[in-house]
Specification:
Number of helices: 0
Shape: elongated
Helix content: under 10%
Low-confidence stretches: none
Structural class: mainly beta
Radius of gyration: 23 Å
Distance between the termini: 17 Å
Number of strands: 16
Length: 197
């Protein structure tokens, strides 16, 4: 047991300290809360960072912030896009089209650019100050597209946070507040959080 938190991977990927002692931990198991403290040494295994070569991660969540021009006429559209990742780490582009449907009301249509498939829709309403007060559905989650042409990869369902969308005077503007997922890459680092995970 040690309070020293300096560990590096050895040639086998095991985390060791400067004295060569191996860091031990409890293996993650689906459905089991990893933050529960286990009393005793049963089940401890070496913490190993496996180098599996290139790995990729498909996108599952992101944020799209936009300001919709309050002076737009009914039927006017504003467009933007977001880069996301499929299950093989290929980039895909989702096109966002906002259409004014009435006073303080807009519709959002999200389309996968390559396939032309509509993967999500949402209607938004705003108060007199331009703050969003409602959306249907409340959470925008895109529909998954499986077996994408050309690659066979899957574009999983992506939950996109649109809660910071506003309707204010001025021009349309948008900010992609972030998207998870990644292109193929190797492990570059590791970290341990306060719960020891």
């Amino acid at each position: 047991l040690t309070r020293a938190g300096s560990f590096v991977p050895d040639k086998n990927g095991n985390l060791v300290n400067t004295a060569g002692f191996t860091l031990m931990g409890y293996e993650y198991k689906a459905g089991v809360d990893p933050t529960v403290v286990v009393n005793g040494f049963d089940g401890l295994v070496p913490v190993q960072l496996k180098d599996e070569g290139l790995v990729a991660a498909g996108s599952t969540k992101g944020t799209m912030e936009a300001n919709l021009p309050s002076g737009a006429a009914v039927g006017d559209q504003s467009k933007t896009s977001m880069v996301v990742y499929d299950s093989q780490g290929n980039t895909r582009i989702l096109d966002f089209t906002y259409t004014k449907t009435g006073p303080n009301a807009w519709g959002l249509n999200v389309v996968d650019r390559t396939s032309g498939t509509t993967v999500g829709t949402q209607t938004m309403t705003f108060d007199a100050a331009g703050k969003r007060i409602g959306a249907v559905p409340a959470t925008l989650t895109t529909t998954a597209i499986n077996n994408l042409p050309g690659t066979g990869a899957n574009l999983g369902a992506i939950t996109i946070d649109t809660t910071k969308t506003t309707q204010l005077g001025g021009d349309f503007s948008s900010t992609t507040g972030g998207i998870d997922g990644s292109k193929p890459s190797t492990m570059s680092s590791f970290e341990t959080d306060k719960a020891g995970i």
